[in-house]
Amino acid sequence: MSLKNKRVVVTGGTRGLGLGLVEALVDEGAKVWVVARDAADLEKVRTRLGVETASADIIDAAAANSILSDVRPAVLVLNAGAVPRMAPIDRTSWEDFTVTWDTDVKGGLYWMQAALNLPLAPGSRVLVSSSGAAQQGSPMSGGYGGAKRMLWLMAKYANGFSEQKGLDIRFQAIVPKQMVAGTGVGGAGSSAYAQAMGIEQDAFLARYPTMPPRQFGNHVVRVLTDATYDSALAIGIRGDTGVTVLEE
């Protein structure tokens, strides 16, 4: 797929991984719509990158249907999500434990349903943001790892429905395999794990390779433009080793 003049919707595209991806997409010539809640952040991105914007909460099912109906993107990237509330399992409340289920999974369900029920055009791609925590867990972040695994499974379920109905819409889980410093999730995670280890946050980050948001964006562009990854269900992304297929 060439991204030149292709319509792309990115939820949570005003900061962190989402912003890195938006920058990469704009450089490829895509026509990008950024969806987020904060109007001021949206205006900054619109002014700097020339993208279209829509202010909406990802757990608003009506907004998902309205935006996809109006834009009809060739690519939909479900990146927005909540920052997990960090605490060990013996000291977390149910409300904190499930915050990513109430946002990431709930929003993912509504947007995937909208993509299937409109439906988007044949050949469309839906990229669903998962996490390395979906494979190895993340004991300080409550239900985050389970929520990201659920999104991975939901992409699989959506592919099954798409095939059954002959929609030719492909759903793929994008799995960052490295912590990304300077993002809400990366900042919360590195701070909590550093504290648990009794070291400074900078010292913790120095022990583990991190991936800049723009590098992540470049790798996702590769996923979209390189036919090698067309049939993959789950795709791992690392800053140092690039793109790998985790599940066909």
Automatic annotation (TrEMBL):
InterPro entries, A to Z: KR_dom (IPR057326), NAD(P)-bd_dom_sf (IPR036291), SDR_fam (IPR002347)
GO molecular function: oxidoreductase activity, acting on NAD(P)H, oxygen as acceptor
Pfam families membership: adh_short
Top-level taxon of origin: Bacteria
Ketoreductase domain mapped to chain residues: 6-179
SUPFAM superfamilies according to UniProt: NAD(P)-binding Rossmann-fold domains
UniProt keyword annotations, A-Z: Oxidoreductase, Plasmid
PANTHER family: BENZIL REDUCTASE (PTHR43008), CHAIN DEHYDROGENASE, PUTATIVE (AFU_ORTHOLOGUE AFUA_4G08710)-RELATED (PTHR43008:SF4)
Similarity comment: Belongs to the short-chain dehydrogenases/reductases (SDR) family.
This protein's name: SDR family oxidoreductase
Organism lineage: Bacteria, Pseudomonadati, Pseudomonadota, Alphaproteobacteria, Hyphomicrobiales
